[in-house]
Amino acid sequence: MNLNENIKTNNASVDSESSIYKRKDLNAFIKKEGNLYSVKENSASSNNDTVYSKENAASSLQSTGKENRTKKKKSELEKRKVVNMLINENIAVGYTSMTEMYLNQLLKADLSLTKDVLNLIYSEHFDNPDILQKITEVMSNLDYEKLYPTNTILVMAIISHTDINVQEAVIASFEKWDDKRNLKYLNNINYTADWIEDYANSVIDYLESC
Question: What is the model's pTM?
Answer without folding.
Answer: 0.70
